[in-house]
Amino acid sequence: MDKNISFTLKVWRQNGPKEKGHFDTFDMKDIPGDTSFLEMLDILNEQLIEDNKEPFVFDHDCREGICGMCSLYINGHPHGPGQGATTCQLYMRKFSDGDIITVEPGARPVTR
Fold first, then answer.
1. Distance of alpha carbon 71 from alpha carbon 48, whole angstroms
2. Phi/psi zone of residue 19: left (φ > 0), alpha (ψ -120 to 50 degrees), beta?
3. Do the beta carbons of residue 65 and residue 89 sit within 8 Å?
4. What are the sequence ranges of the domains in the chain?
5. How confident is the model at residue 26 (pLDDT cuts 50, 70, 90)?
6. CA dist., res. 58 & res. 15, Å (int)
7. pLDDT of 51-88, one tens digit each?
8. What is the CATH T-level fold of the domain 27-105, as seen in this structure?
9. How far apart, in Å, are the Cα atoms of 60 and each of 64, 68, 104?
10. Which residues pair with 4 in a beta bridge?
11. Sign of the CA dihedral 85, 89, 94, 100?
């Protein structure tokens, strides 16, 4: 059984491809280890929407590791730690309690 973790999430945000971007920082609490990375971003977005804030926008499609639309750089690596898996196949159990996780745009152009 996976344990829950809490961590700091730094996400790259910008309003468009020609706009200056910045990192926003969020404290994520008690996230189950069996949560996929994209599901964790869904949790973040639910919290942002509840607080009447702009959700974090990212491409995602199949969530089955087939399409590659979920391409993100996680801690400086395409799709995050490890090899042979897309972002949607990355689970929070790969991270440790107290980690700082940085998310930046992947291979796709920034649209927003």
1. 22
2. beta
3. yes
4. 27-105
5. very high
6. 12
7. 999 998 877 667 777 776 677 899 998 888 877 778 88
8. Ubiquitin-like (UB roll) (3.10.20)
9. 10, 8, 14
10. 32
11. positive
